[in-house]
Each structure stands twice: as C-alpha cells, then as structure tokens.
C-alpha cells in the first residue's frame, strides 16, 4: 500500500498541491500534518510510522523537507523505514528507496551526514587541544571564585544570615553554594548550624 504524507506550514496553509500530487502518485491513504515550519514535532507522522505502515508499504511525500527539517532527522527516519522494510518515495526529488538507485542516493545522504558529524567532532577536539595549549581550560568557568567561597563560608559560620540570602548575594543558587562550600569540606557543620538556627 502507498501512504501519502503531506505537511502544511502555517505560512502555506493550502495543502491541495501536495495532496493532489500524492493522489496522482497512487496513494490509497493520505495524511496531512499542520504545524509551524520551525517545529520538529510531527505527531501525525509518528502515528503513521507506528500504526499505519506495514512491511512492504511505501511512504510517499511530495518533498523531503516535508518529512524532516534536518538532514540528520531525515536520515534517521529513512533508516527507521528501511529497518521496517518500508519504502520511501519523494515526488519532487524523484527518490524511491524501493529501487537500487534510490537506496544508493539515501546511503550517499547518510554518508554525507556521518562525515559532517565526524568533521564537527574533529574540529571541536582540535579547538579544545589548541585552547589548552594556550592555557585555557575547557568548559564553563566556576560559578564562584575562591574569594566568594571564603566570604560565603565566613557568613555561614557567623550564622546570622540565612543561607538563601548568602546565595542571593553571591548570585548563585543554594545548591550551587553548598556544592562549592562542600568542595573544601566543612559543609556538614554549616548545615547543622543552619538547622539549629532555622
């Protein structure tokens, strides 16, 4: 069975062009998804993949961008279909994974996506190595400087200011304050002192 899937953005509210193309392509059932072009949420597509399509069926789309917003998501969806032995046809791009040529095209897409991910990883690693050689550490800077930690410790030991107020003064959450104070020890005594006053 050929199942059509049309996605209509809020800008392009008239799905007739897609629907007519899908009907002419021999789709017995056609489903329409309405939503923002920016959103990656496609509940109707999820329902089609889990409840409607069966082994040997073919999912037909008017254009590949109707199926997924990113190449990564498109490849993942195509691989999911391939595992379930469901074909994928894109009318605009003339891709048909039920043919050897169509499968080749999709494997090329997959290889390109994998290559792109590897390049990004490689560049990230090279950037971190270079930064470390220049004396920079990776990651975020600590939320509290050593001088802030010392000041917070002194205020907490004094016991006259609630921990919540100390955290606000330092510009951090109570959990972050305890985490940084606890790094040098003494947090148990401070907590007990807080409970005694609270």
UniProtKB/TrEMBL annotation:
<keyword id="KW-0230">DNA invertase</keyword>
<dbReference type="GO" id="GO:0000150">
    <property type="term" value="F:DNA strand exchange activity"/>
</dbReference>
<dbReference type="GO" id="GO:0015074">
    <property type="term" value="P:DNA integration"/>
</dbReference>
<feature type="domain" description="Resolvase/invertase-type recombinase catalytic">
    <location>
        <begin position="1"/>
        <end position="135"/>
    </location>
</feature>
<dbReference type="InterPro" id="IPR009057">
    <property type="entry name" value="Homeodomain-like_sf"/>
</dbReference>
<protein>
    <submittedName>
        <fullName>DNA invertase</fullName>
    </submittedName>
</protein>
<dbReference type="InterPro" id="IPR036162">
    <property type="entry name" value="Resolvase-like_N_sf"/>
</dbReference>
<dbReference type="GO" id="GO:0003677">
    <property type="term" value="F:DNA binding"/>
</dbReference>
<comment type="similarity">
    <text>Belongs to the site-specific recombinase resolvase family.</text>
</comment>
<dbReference type="Pfam" id="PF00239">
    <property type="entry name" value="Resolvase"/>
</dbReference>
<keyword id="KW-0229">DNA integration</keyword>
<keyword id="KW-0233">DNA recombination</keyword>
<keyword id="KW-0238">DNA-binding</keyword>
<dbReference type="InterPro" id="IPR006118">
    <property type="entry name" value="Recombinase_CS"/>
</dbReference>
<dbReference type="InterPro" id="IPR006119">
    <property type="entry name" value="Resolv_N"/>
</dbReference>
<dbReference type="Pfam" id="PF02796">
    <property type="entry name" value="HTH_7"/>
</dbReference>
<dbReference type="InterPro" id="IPR050639">
    <property type="entry name" value="SSR_resolvase"/>
</dbReference>
<feature type="active site" description="O-(5'-phospho-DNA)-serine intermediate">
    <location>
        <position position="9"/>
    </location>
</feature>
<dbReference type="InterPro" id="IPR006120">
    <property type="entry name" value="Resolvase_HTH_dom"/>
</dbReference>
């Amino acid at each position: 069975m050929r199942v059509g899937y049309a996605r209509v953005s809020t800008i392009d509210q008239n799905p007739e062009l897609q629907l007519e193309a899908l009907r002419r392509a021999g789709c017995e059932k056609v489903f329409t998804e309405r939503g923002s072009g920016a959103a990656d949420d496609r509940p109707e597509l999820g329902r089609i993949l889990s409840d409607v399509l069966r082994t040997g069926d073919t999912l037909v789309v008017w254009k590949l961008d109707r199926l997924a917003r990113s190449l990564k998501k498109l490849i993942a969806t195509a691989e999911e279909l391939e595992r379930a032995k469901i074909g994928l046809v894109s009318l605009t791009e003339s891709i048909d994974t039920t043919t050897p040529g169509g499968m080749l095209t999709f494997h090329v897409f997959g290889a390109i996506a994998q290559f792109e991910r590897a390049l990004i990883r490689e560049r990230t690693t090279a950037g971190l190595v270079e930064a470390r050689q220049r004396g920079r550490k990776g990651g975020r800077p600590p939320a509290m400087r050593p001088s802030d930690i010392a000041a917070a410790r002194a205020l907490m030991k004094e016991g006259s200011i609630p921990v919540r107020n100390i955290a606000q003064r330092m510009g951090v959450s109570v959990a972050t304050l305890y985490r940084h104070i606890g790094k040098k020890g003494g947090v148990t005594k401070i907590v007990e002192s807080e409970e005694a006053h609270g």
